[in-house]
Design a protein that fits this description.
By secondary structure, this protein is of the alpha/beta class. The protein has 2 domains: 2-162, NAD(P)-binding Rossmann-like Domain (Rossmann fold, 3-Layer(aba) Sandwich); 169-290, N-(1-d-carboxylethyl)-l-norvaline Dehydrogenase, domain 2 (Orthogonal Bundle). The chain is built from 14 helices and 9 strands. The protein has helices at 12-17, 33-43, 51-55, 68-76, 80-84, 99-111, 124-129, 141-154, 166-194, 199-206, 214-224, 235-252, 257-273, 282-290; strands spanning 2-6, 25-29, 46-47, 60-63, 90-93, 115-118, 121-122, 133-138, 155-162. Helix 1 (12-17) links the parallel strand 1 (2-6) and strand 2. Helix 9 crosses helix 12. The longest helix is centred in the middle third of the chain and has 29 residues, at 166-194. It is globular. The N and C termini lie far apart (49 Å). 45% of the residues are buried. Bound molecules: NADPH dihydro-nicotinamide-adenine-dinucleotide phosphate.
């Protein structure tokens, strides 16, 4: 099966590594060509100098870009890329995108006989490296069956969420919850530190109680208490995701003030911490506002 993979970023790169080798015939492309060339050399796959070259002859085109804005721009730039994708091919968009843009893309592609599936992923770089991502997809079942072997190469839990855009909607809400959990856990720990409770002691209790979350169980102990703050998922991307969830709530007339406030807080964190900060670094904004450090004192 001939595959073109466009976008070898933090998550795209480990995903594409599972497609290097039979039964797949992989060609990679990345905006910064050096990354694609290094990947191709390491995995012994083909590298294309342009996205147009990459998609020629591909039965499956995978995009894994920051947002739907970049996917739309890449496809519609001079009409070239969309025109270069073969009739009968499927565009599998693994970007955490927005539902409205995905629906627009799907309808434009359908006119050209090209299928579209929105298939955002979850689980982070570790699950991507292990080929164990959760894949939430939206679209037509018959179209999906044509790309199922590709998705199974990097996904473990693969769930049909509904029509085109449903995968994007679910991903945006999942990540809105992640953002709110990070912020609320950090606020709680800052408050407890000021109340004289050590963050390690607080987490020991919270993680054996009903206030626990992935943030309290994993992210904060591993990344905040240690002050390691590894960069695995850009804060700017999480801000984009919770922003999509907030906009969707507005569009659908759903009262979601916590998500709206979380989106505002993540936008502020992005302004303060910049484009390259990791999503967990939003905790630093709360620390600065409160003049405390959420650490165990041994880092
Ligand atoms: P990165 O920022 O690490 O990489 C983004 C990729 O998109 C790079 O290949 C970059 O190219 C390319 N790119 C950026 N702008 C453009 C453009 N205008 N035209 C063409 N290519 C462009 O992002 P991630 O890999 O972390 O994320 C990709 C998607 O996956 C996002 O939607 C994200 O929300 C989602 N995601 C990320 C996870 C993670 O843990 N990192 C987990 C789950 C989902 P270049 O190298 O030239 O900059």
């Amino acid at each position: 099966m001939r595959i073109a993979f466009l976008g070898l970023g933090a998550i795209g790169r480990p995903m594409a590594s599972h497609l290097a080798g039979a039964p797949f015939e992989l060609t990679v492309w990345n905006r910064s060509g050096a990354k694609a060339r290094a990947f191709a050399k390491h995995h012994n796959v083909a590298v294309a100098e342009s996205a147009v070259e990459a998609v020629k002859g591909a039965e499956v085109v995978i995009t894994c870009l920051p947002s739907s804005v970049e996917v739309l721009a890449l496809l519609s730039k001079d009409g070239k890329l969309i025109g270069a994708i073969e009739r009968g091919a499927v565009l599998l968009d693994c970007t955490s995108g927005d539902p409205a843009t995905s629906r627009l893309l799907a309808s434009e592609l359908e006119k050209r006989g090209i299928g579209f599936i929105d298939a955002p992923v979850s689980g982070g770089v570790v699950a991507a490296e292990g080929g164990k991502l959760t894949v939430m997809w939206g679209g037509d079942e018959e179209v999906f069956e044509r790309v199922r072997p590709v998705v199974e190469a990097f996904g473990k839990k693969i769930v049909h969420c509904g029509p085109v855009g449903a995968g994007d909607a679910l991903k945006a809400v999942n990540n809105a919850l992640l953002a709110v959990h990070i912020l609320s856990a950090a606020e709680g720990l800052a408050l407890l530190k000021k109340a004289g409770v050590d963050p390690s002691v607080a987490l020991d209790v919270i993680n054996a109680s009903s206030g626990r979350s992935n943030s309290s169980e994993n992210l904060i102990p591993q990344r905040v208490l240690t002050r390691a703050f590894p960069r695995t998922f850009r804060l700017a991307l999480l801000e984009k995701d919770i922003g999509i969830a907030a906009s969707l709530a507005t569009e659908l007339g759903v009262a979601a003030p916590l998500i709206a406030l979380g989106a505002e807080r993540y936008a502020e964190a992005r302004r303060q911490l910049g484009e390259e900060a990791d999503h967990v670094e939003a905790v630093k904004m709360i620390e600065a506002e409160n003049g405390v450090e959420i650490s165990d004192g041994t880092a």
